[in-house]
Design goal:
The chain is of the alpha/beta class and 393 residues long. The protein folds into 3 domains: 169 residues, Rossmann fold, CATH 3.40.50.2000; 148 residues, Rossmann fold; 56 residues, no CATH class. It is 45% helix and 13% strand. It contains 15 helices and 13 strands. The strands form 3 sheets. It has a 6-stranded parallel β-sheet with strand order 2-1-3-4-5-6, with helices on both faces. Strands 8-7-9-12-13 form a 5-stranded parallel β-sheet, with helices on both faces. It has a two-stranded antiparallel sheet with strand order 10-11. β10 and β11 form a beta hairpin. α13 packs across α14. It is globular, with a radius of gyration of 22 Å. The chain starts with a strand and ends with a helix.
Length: 393
Amino acid sequence: MKILCAFGQYNYGDVKRGESPEFSAFLPALRNLGHEVRLVETWNRRAYLDLASLNRALLDAVEDFRPDVLLSVQMNYEIWLETLELIRARGDVITLSWATDDSWKYREVSRFIAGSYDAMATTYDHVVPRYRSDGFDHVLATQWAAISDHLQEPLPAQNCRYPVSFIGTSHGSRIQRVEALRARGIKVVCFGHGWPNGPVAAEDMPRIIRESCISLNFANSQGENQIKARLFEVPGAGGFLLTEPARSLEKYYRADQEIAVFADLDDLVAKINHYLAHPQERDRIAQAGFQRTRQEHTYEHRFIQLLRFARTSAPARSHARSAMPFQEAAVRHRLTPPLRLLRNILMRLGGLVFGKEKGAKAARRLVYELSWRLVGRHTFTASGWPGRMFPHD
């Protein structure tokens, strides 16, 4: 099949934050399955004059490439609902959305865009009932995975370069945990945006994982522990994973047999010291985790199931469709003088309180939070206020 991907090459569209897992994992897996794949950049909004240009580029790519499937990962309102309906109205493209962070994004994004896709995929199985209660039966619970091209047998602990490592963006709770470990005499080598070592190139990450006796995973995000790609990447790259617990984790790995799980800081310190002192036990768990990953948890496994589901869902959702012409949508997207004035006032006030850069982000966030709460689905249309006022954020 021909698959057109609509997401970003870099995390949050920012080259400084390193390649996104979607770019480094989805595209190779789909090609390994024999599909012809093309990417349309939709996260780097600064590459476009405005969101009208971004949506026009997506429609042009559909017309030029003529894909069988459009696979998108939406950050929020960058892809208009009108654009999705125009693509679906063609009748020859299955539209599929991989929804990330649905533990919190279902409420403010996914439930508003789901009706404009033929199929939805969520990495949160406990959110599926919420989709269905809102009338969206075309949803499949899936999960992140390991990149098959990075699969490697584990190294024995005695051959590892780093005793303990962590790969991931630096932020408050992670910094605090790393500092707490160092205060307990455990040195953690950190890689990623915000750490002194900086981001890790996609091709270097498996090597660091494999050469680490212990690879840490902090699963917290907006208050709830979550399963992320790192959970599968570490065992798949031949690493030993020590992670905090997350909902449904037991569906994918057996604790203390294929991975190790810690409950709190004291438990984390104790288990680091235990596995460093018992390398044979560490090696046995790392090998079992690798074998489980290779057999069940690669992106090829995920996409075989997901594409089959999308092909089944699309005919069931087919109906006579009418879609707004793109030019009409583009006209509705124009920034009017009143909205420009409002944006400038909010940015100036935000700048006075938070500084110029953070003030602009605060202004956009305020408009977005009010919009999805007050007008819901309209936020994600061409005429939505956040997209018209802040097209590049």
